[in-house]
Amino acid sequence: MPTVVDCPTCGKKVEWSEKNKYRPFCSERCKQIDLGAWAEEKYTIPGGAPTDPLDDPLDEGKQ
Ligand SMILES: [Zn+2]
């Protein structure tokens, strides 16, 4: 009995086998979509805009 997993991108049932080189994804497209999502998350800072440490000395000088 083959191992079946859910494609993380679209939720489609995917057979986990040596034939499926995109596992656990159902297709190359879904794999690329997931990788793209991860890349976007890297650039998203939770909690709003990041503080630029280079701005701090300038702000102190002004005040
Ligand atoms: Zn998929």
UniProtKB/TrEMBL annotation:
One of its GO terms (molecular function) is DNA topoisomerase type II (double strand cut, ATP-hydrolyzing) inhibitor activity. GO terms for biological process: regulation of DNA-templated transcription. Residues 43-63 are annotated as: Disordered. Its cofactor is Zn(2+). Pfam families: YacG (PF03884). Transmembrane segments: none annotated. Binds 1 zinc ion. Residues 53-63 have a biased composition (Acidic residues). Belongs to the DNA gyrase inhibitor YacG family. This is DNA gyrase inhibitor YacG. It comes from Pseudoduganella lurida. The lineage of its organism: Bacteria, Pseudomonadati, Pseudomonadota, Betaproteobacteria, Burkholderiales. The gene is yacG.
